[in-house]
Design goal:
Blueprint (H helix, E strand, L loop, with lengths): L2 H27 L22 E6 L4 E6 L3 E3 L14 E8 L2 E8 L2 H6 L8 E8 L2 E11 L4 E11 L2 E12 L2 E2 L3 H8 L2 E2 L3
Antiparallel strand pairs: 1-2, 2-11, 3-4, 4-5, 5-9, 6-7, 7-8, 8-9, 9-10
């Protein structure tokens, strides 16, 4: 083979090597994205947060999402229904369907009794809110004008008994259907587990 033939042969090999090397680098750093078949439909039910607000408490390190139209209060009594010692009311969210209250206590008596069933309460299945497991209890409060179901979610977190309580009106012995109260409770999470 002549000098020109060798030169063309080496140039062709370099071009082929460049194409293979370029393809390898593209595939390594930019892998192809798998196409999603058009028949696949996402059925994820993400709540619409466009008309929501977020309440955050830096002292106890939690947050929850609630409808922006709800009324927010930071004073109520008692700090938790059936409390046996003092505690701190943190936030009450009043909705057209009921209310949600969050309170906490560092009292030794409350921390010991936090996850135990109280008088007139029934035990429900444990509830995971965020990354924390809460003990759940319920009781019906049958006042003359205000019949309501109180559901209490309690957990000891960072040395404090934290109680999330939902109050829902009873109609004919059953709770009126309310997704807003349930969504508020389910949005609760601690910043650190």
């Amino acid at each position: 083979m002549t000098r020109f033939g060798w030169l063309v042969f080496i140039i062709v090999l370099l071009v082929i090597a460049g194409i293979i090397g370029g393809w390898y680098l593209i595939m390594r750093y930019h892998p192809p994205v798998a196409a999603v078949p058009s028949s696949t439909v996402s059925t994820s039910t993400q709540p619409d947060l466009s008309s929501s607000s977020i309440y955050t408490n830096g002292v106890y390190g939690f947050s929850l999402v609630y409808p922006a139209a709800d009324t927010v209060a930071q004073t109520f009594a008692p700090w938790r229904e059936g409390a046996i010692a003092t505690g701190t009311p943190l936030v009450a969210l009043v909705d057209i369907d009921g209310s949600v209250r969050v309170g906490a206590s560092t009292s030794t008596k409350e921390v010991k009794a936090c996850t135990k069933v109280g008088p007139a309460e029934s035990t429900l299945a444990d509830m995971n809110l965020g990354s924390t497991t809460f003990k759940a209890f319920t009781r019906d409060d049958m006042g003359t004008d205000n019949q309501q179901r109180i559901t209490s979610y309690r957990s000891v977190h960072d040395g404090a008994c934290v109680a999330i309580e939902s109050f829902q009106t009873l109609q004919g012995g059953a709770v009126a259907s309310s997704t807003s109260i349930t969504n508020i409770v389910h949005s609760f999470s601690f910043a650190r587990p």
